[in-house]
Amino acid sequence: MSVEGVGARIARKEDKRFITGLGRFVDDMVLPRMKHAAFVRSPYAHAKITGIRTEAAKAMPGILAVLTGPELKDDGIGNLICGWMIHSKDGTPMKMGAWSPLAVERARYVGDAVAVVVAETRAQARDAAEAVEVDYEELPAVTEAVEALKPGAPQLHPEAENNLIFDWELGDAKATDEAIARAAHVTRMKIVNNRLVPNAMEPRAALGHYDGAEDHFTLWTTSQNPHLARLVMSAFYNVAPENKLRVIAPDVGGGFGSKIYIYPEEIVCLWASKRTGFPVKWTADRTESFLCDAHGRDHVSEVSLAFDADNQMIALKVDTIANLGAYMSLFSSCVPTYLYATLLSGQYVIPAIHCNVRAVYTNTAPVDAYRGAGRPEATYLLERVVETAARELQISPAELRRKNFIRAFPYQTPVIMNYDAGDYEASLEAAMQAADYAGFTVRREEARRRGKLRGIGMSCYIEACGLAPSQAVGSLGAGVGLWESAEVRVNMAGTVEVLTGSHSHGQGHETTFAQVVAERLGISIDQVSIVHGDTDKVQMGMGTYGSRSGAVGMSAVVKALDRVEAKAKRIAAHLLEADEADIVIEDGAVKVAGTDRSLPWAQVALSAYTAHNLPEGMEPGLKETSFYDPSNFTFPAGCHIAEVEVDPETGHTEIVQFVAADDFGNIINPMIVEGQVHGGVAQGIGQALLEGCRYDPDTGQLLTASYMDYTMPRAADLPSFDVLTSNTPSPSNPLGIKGCGEAGAIGSPPAVINAITDAIRNNELPMPASSQTVWKALRKAA
Amino acid sequence: MYQTTYHRAASLEEAAKLLAQADDGKFLAGGQTLIPTMKQRLAAPSDLIDLRHIPELKGITINGSDMRIGAGTTHAEVAAHAGLAALCPAICRLAAHIGDPHVRHMGTIGGSIANNDPAADYPAAVLALGATVETSKRTIAADDFFTGLFGTALEEDEIVTAVSFSAPEKAGYAKFPNPASRYALVGVFVARRPEGVRVAVSGAGEDGAFRASALEDALARSFDPAALDGISLPSTGLMSDIHASAEYRAHLIAVMAKRAVKAAIG
Q1: How many C-beta neighbours within 10 Å does residue A159 have?
Q2: Contacts of B94 (CB under 8 A, 6+ apart)
Q3: Hey, is the C-beta of A712 within 8 angstroms of any chain B C-beta?
């Protein structure tokens, strides 16, 4: 490891501009003649639109245009789509209802965009938006998926009878039922995974610019994947062909999944720019973010976990109803299916697993991937039921888990995944040691004397990251391949630019990707620039989500570096009149091993471009491109242990200790990895204790539409985290990386709820376990 | 925010005059409720009359055991005032836990009680301390000042100028914050004087802050947390929302009252 290379704990290069206010976000972009958009949104959860009158709005000061759905249709702009095909178990394709970027005839959730106003200023646009008169005929609304499936429920889309999008299954139903029938013990639970609002620090924004001279569009947008945005807008929404559309995602202030998708506003800003002849910018306010960003989670499940007489798991049966909201967002269908059911084996040998999932339309914001995406739902369900089983079987939770751990790799689960490497016992041991698990009973007694109820809970999670082998996901219904691409461009004097399709919106790629290059070429990270987020600069890319940038994005960089290094060595061997096999690159020099003959890296680079003396037949230049397609998912895993104290008088829970022992494979920068774990655990604790998106079940109004009612975790709600790693390198990519972005949010919620239910001696506890919820559970237990 | 016209008043008379001239004017104190409400387009005053630069509203005066807090005094100033801390530390602790540092450096006691948000902290203190609200026109006893949810005895053009009260023997405040907003889900202020005990509750009442006579009676017999053991309050008249049912609020009132007494007798 060099000082700045792989494994170095160095501060992030990009933080200087962020903490000095010099970051450049979409809303910072100002173009000449730029105008501002405001959206007219449905105040009803479900309504027929019988008329839209725009005259009064158009007459207001500064108004350039008021545009509606029918005009958008006239211009051939297409509907939004879900890009992952799921087939129901009867073989029929999922039932996707139409989602027009501006609602036509019907609005299906509070916040559904109905019209757009373009004005000289943002304030004028908003004033005029209120003057657009929309005639609504209010319809009955349904917000909960379980209710939406019932006979007589309000119907959202004619395509989806009974609001059912698909009824899908994975695994062997017969074998699972048979095993449950002969089980010595079956633990049964109903598990609800609460709906969450993503709350990226930067609200979504879009700036569309149509250049009439070139007949070319440019979109600045808050995207985690600009190339994917361009593809979808070209191929499905008919905004412009890819060669006529440039998508730029500059600094982006957090995404957590919510900025993967294409939303109506980006499409409308581009279209409105061509319509009006001006660049058009829109930036969401926080209320719009709450109403319209794709939400996360929202599952209701029944689970049965069966054991033989020796406490070995023999079967797991799961029946899940997933709320997908009013429309199918871009990847909404894969979250409760292939990112969920495939992880239900957890860290355990479970010979028979069956999972049935019904995905349902409701009059709520679309639901899609949110940090973890399917894997937190699987982990919460499994780790709650395993902990409950341990209580029922009167065996220690650690012992029950140990007894059932997978110990031989590779391991083929009954639900598609083939785990390549792991050591679950090591993470469990490390976490228990760090948490002083053995000393808990003493601490519980001490807390009791202070009038507090102390509890401890663990969670042993696994996730599939490094999304994903293209052929595999293609066979499961994905509309795209999930490779990544990179170009390593050595400049004439030896500095390096890496162009990557991964997108950094908080992950620190400008530092970690440079560390990989520094390690290989022996140059400083200051000599390496990471270029991302612009379809005109970067060759191709699939973006950042699913903890894939390290495992897949960096692997593409490594592949390109291999080629650069090979060419540099050939040039050096030629210049130094040495055998190519004897050339090594280290400390900024290209050397003949075991001699004092060497050339500075910069001189080799320059030689590649002067081309005065290159090996026979070699092309000038030192710049290589690669596409890397992973051979398998990666499988980060670990053990989280939470210790809590509950105030029995108020129900308030304090997390007094939190240990995360994770196996992320090899680590590029421990400081950044720890930061990712801290953030993920904070979000997981948020889900467990504080965050819950609530709609009024009758009116469909969002009750938690601001920070006055939606509880975001604050520093004071969180303990100081104890984060450790025990790593087994992934055999599935050249750097041995598994990924760390989502683990914290996946592993922590069940650990926290297991701890609180241990403290209050009542296992019936929904998330978020607010003080009131815990108080009620305490009263029931009493 | 809708278009509005800002005025900076230099005196109480000028403020009243500006309000009279406005179509739909509003006095602006610290702005910690009004400005966010305007930004959300839920309020649209034609004119804002800023009271923050009126000298009469400034300052804290201590005279023996009597305290007078100018209406324009920020929460941070109250929290840090040594004279108040010596006579009534509970009011300082209350102020120190309103909102966050930004709010505490902008928000004022006058603005808080004039707005009478049912979840604000100060109304409970003003009621329990039996304070006198001084205005540009008169003085109003605390018991007569708060008239219901966001309602006060203030006339349209009447401005709170100060809150005054004498030192209690003992006083304490305990708040259970709303997890999201950090306003009081339940806040209980207790104050003991030779003539009796006053207990006021914020955050819970459907009609705003109120006095809890059952708790006052129990504490008059014995000013000790144990005096409230086993006391059960009815949930009628209490707010119910996604954060707390009326039953939970009723329970928390008793718990917070005990903690307030504990803080008072320290």
Answers
A1: 12
A2: B121, B122, B125, B173, B175, B187, B189
A3: yes
Mean pLDDT, chain A, integer: 97
Considering Cα of A284, then A288, then A290, then A292, what sign does the dihedral take? negative
Put simply, whether the predicted model's pTM sits higher than 0.95 gets the answer yes
How many structural domains compose chain B?
3
pLDDT band at residue A448 under the 50/70/90 scheme = very high
Q: Which of A647, A691, A701, A708 has the highest number of chain B CBs within 10 A, making it the mutation to test binding with B? A: A708
The 10 Å Cβ neighbour count of residue B31 is: 17
Instruction: Flag whether pLDDT at A2 surpasses 80.
Output: no
Q: Does B122 touch chain A (CB under 8 A)?
A: no
> How far apart are alpha carbons A739 and A733 in whole angstroms?
11
Q: Are B54 and B9 in contact (CB under 8 A)?
A: yes
For the segment A651-678, the average pLDDT, to the nearest whole number, is 97
Instruction: Tell me how far apart the alpha carbons of residues B61 and B70 are, in angstroms, rounded to a whole number.
Output: 8
Fold for the domain defined by A296-467+632-781: Aldehyde Oxidoreductase; domain 4 (3.30.365)
On the question of pLDDT at A726 being above 90, the answer is no
Mean pLDDT of A312-333: 98
CB–CB contact A123 B3 (8 Å): yes
Give residue A3's pLDDT band: very low, low, confident or very high (50, 70, 90): confident
* ipTM given for this complex: 0.96
Q: What's the CA gap between B85 and B78, in Å, rounded?
A: 9
Residues facing A534 on adjacent strands = A248
Q: Do A711 and B179 touch (CB under 8 A)?
A: yes
CB contact A445 to B (< 8 Å)? no
Please tell me if the domain spanning A31-139+201-254+259-292 has the same topology as the one spanning A296-467+632-781: no
- Gap between the terminal Cα atoms of chain B: 46
Distance CA A650, CA B175 (A): 11
Among B50, B68, B86, identify where a domain stops.
B50
B46: domain CATH number is 3.30.43.10
Question: Are B22 and B66 in the same domain?
Answer: no
Task: Give the chain B residue nearest A122 (alpha carbons).
Answer: B1
Where in A501-564 does DSSP place strands (E)?
528-531
Q: How far is A284 from chain B (nearest CA, A)?
A: 13
Model confidence at A576: pLDDT above 60: yes
Distance to chain B for A194, nearest Cα, Å: 14
A325 burial (CB, 10 Å; 0-12 / 13-18 / 19+) is: buried
pLDDT of residue B266: 86
What pLDDT, in 10s, does the model give residues B206-262?
A: 999 999 999 999 999 999 999 999 999 999 999 999 999 999 999 999 999 999 999
